[in-house]
């Protein structure tokens, strides 16, 4: 049972259904959202969307935003072209702008195509765990009480998660004193392009995300006086927010199509799992929207958990595999919250020192950093989430070349080595010549062995000649074995109690 039909819950339902699990997805709302706070679909999400043949359709429906600009004191100090920074790193070297409301409708249609409908106006009241299932009480569309049972329950139900409260998970963190505003607008001016711009000023900032090249876009900024906003984060009009940073970059808003304010929190739950209950997305972590990471992180949670649930439910893995969900995803969420907290604090802090950093240090430092190819690539990897790694997690082992167990498999554009990853199965990759005993081991396990030639592109990507890379169903490397040792691969498999092929355990 999936509680919550936002992008996180919908992706979890899609990935579980694709792997043969029956799912029930409920949502208290009457329909999908009509307002959209999440706009950015990062490259790593698009890579994972290839598994269900979603990526091309999402890219076609959205707007590939080609560059990031930093403005300080009315001048553009730096520009990083995503296509240059991400070239060779991913098939999707851009920031895709795809509003969440449209994104949700797209995922709902795909889920319906698999025979699963979202149960609307259906609210989770509570649940209790039994020996081999969860028994839940729901309130239906007419106010009727519904009893339901499921093997597992996934809380994708947002910051006020009923599932999180039910399992008594903590949600430590805090709330910023300032208040964010978001506005969908029609604008003109030097910054009103189909790119991303961030403008810094004295205790003021504004971020512009272009929807197209004709001046349509999203503005994000901070309300100067939080006293003008009620406890729910509602109140002022667009006319009431500071326009100083907008004016500095010549951004003139001609029409406001939608405007909202809300308070910004930074929290990570202390428990992603209790027994048969799991927390994902905003139910597990919330943070400032700096960098457009929130929705993508929730989708990453869903795909990380989905293959593990499917394996355990099918008897191909022990229950202990599910503990690796928290072990892998919580450290990433903590780092993300800490990073976005620092960025947001720097952009909105008041006082002379903060102004000095924004208006004096940033203009000197940013152009130097952006001229360095390695720095540009690193920033793209962080933003795109292609740098996310589980190398410190309990399921990861070894290193071959620059690739560690737990890392995302590097992309090699010349051969598109990510193409086989569209199958949600275990597989082995060898770049060079596979050993005969490795081929025999893969046949015994019932998994595919994909062989690629080794050349300059593979070496540049950090892969090692003739090494064996055991790839998980969620496309991360589980084991990077430099000598392609079958003994080491088999030891890892038996230690974790896994059946790698799709047959019965």
TrEMBL record:
Record-linked InterPro entries: FAD-bd, FAD/NAD-bd_sf, RIFMO-like
Keyword Flavoprotein in annotation: yes
Would you say which domain of life the source belongs to?
Answer: Bacteria
Which ranges carry the FAD-binding domain? 1-339
* Keyword vocabulary terms for this entry: FAD, Flavoprotein
Cofactors named for this entry: FAD
Q: What GO terms are given for molecular function? A: FAD binding; oxidoreductase activity, acting on paired donors, with incorporation or reduction of molecular oxygen, NAD(P)H as one donor, and incorporation of one atom of oxygen
Q: What is this protein called?
A: 2-polyprenyl-6-methoxyphenol hydroxylase-like FAD-dependent oxidoreductase
């Amino acid at each position: 049972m999936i509680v919550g039909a936002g992008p996180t819950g919908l992706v979890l339902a899609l990935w579980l259904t694709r792997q043969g699990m029956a799912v029930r997805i409920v949502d208290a709302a009457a329909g999908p959202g009509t307002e959209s706070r999440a706009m950015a679909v990062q490259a790593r999400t698009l890579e994972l969307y290839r598994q269900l043949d979603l990526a091309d359709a999402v890219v076609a429906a959205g707007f590939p935003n080609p560059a990031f600009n930093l403005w300080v004191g009315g001048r553009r100090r730096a520009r990083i072209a995503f296509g240059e920074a991400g070239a060779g790193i991913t098939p999707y070297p851009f920031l895709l702008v795809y509003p969440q409301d449209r994104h949700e409708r797209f995922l709902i249609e795909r889920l319906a195509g698999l025979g699963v409908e979202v149960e609307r106006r259906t609210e989770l009241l509570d649940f209790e765990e039994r020996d081999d299932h969860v028994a839940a009480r729901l309130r239906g569309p007419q106010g009727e009480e519904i009893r339901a049972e499921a093997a597992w329950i996934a809380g994708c139900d947002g910051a006020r998660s009923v599932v999180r409260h039910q399992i008594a998970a903590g949600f430590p963190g805090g709330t910023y004193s300032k208040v964010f505003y978001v506005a969908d607008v029609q604008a003109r001016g030097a910054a009103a392009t189909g790119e991303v711009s961030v403008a810094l000023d004295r205790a003021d900032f504004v971020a512009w995300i272009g929807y197209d090249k004709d001046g349509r876009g999203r503005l994000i900024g901070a309300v100067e006086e939080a006293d003008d906003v009620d406890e729910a984060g509602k109140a002022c009009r667009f006319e009431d927010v500071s326009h100083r940073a907008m004016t500095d970059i010549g951004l003139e808003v001609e029409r406001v199509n939608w405007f909202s304010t809300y308070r910004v929190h930074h929290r990570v739950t202390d428990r992603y799992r209790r027994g048969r209950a799991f927390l994902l997305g905003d139910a597990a972590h919330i943070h400032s929207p700096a960098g457009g990471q929130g929705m993508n992180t929730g989708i990453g949670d869903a795909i990380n958990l989905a293959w593990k649930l499917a394996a355990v439910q099918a008897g191909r893995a022990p229950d202990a595999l599910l503990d690796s969900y928290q072990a892998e995803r919580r450290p990433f969420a903590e780092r993300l919250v800490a990073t976005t907290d620092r960025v947001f604090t720097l952009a909105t802090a008041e006082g002379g020192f903060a102004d000095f950093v924004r208006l004096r240090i940033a203009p000197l430092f940013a152009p130097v950093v952006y001229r360095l190819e390695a720095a540009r690539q690193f920033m793209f990897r962080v933003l795109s989430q292609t740098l996310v790694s589980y190398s410190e997690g309990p399921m990861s082992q070894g290193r071959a070349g620059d690739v560690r167990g737990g890392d995302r498999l590097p992309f090699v554009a010349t051969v598109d080595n990510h193409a086989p990853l569209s199958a949600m199965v275990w597989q082995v990759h060898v770049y060079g010549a596979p050993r005969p005993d490795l081929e025999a081991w893969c046949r015994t396990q019932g998994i595919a062995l994909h062989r690629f030639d080794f050349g300059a592109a593979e070496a540049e990507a950090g892969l090692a000649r003739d090494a064996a890379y055991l790839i998980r169903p969620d496309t991360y490397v589980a084991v990077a074995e430099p000598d392609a040792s079958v003994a080491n691969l088999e030891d890892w498999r038996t230690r974790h109690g896994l059946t790698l092929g799709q047959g019965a355990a």
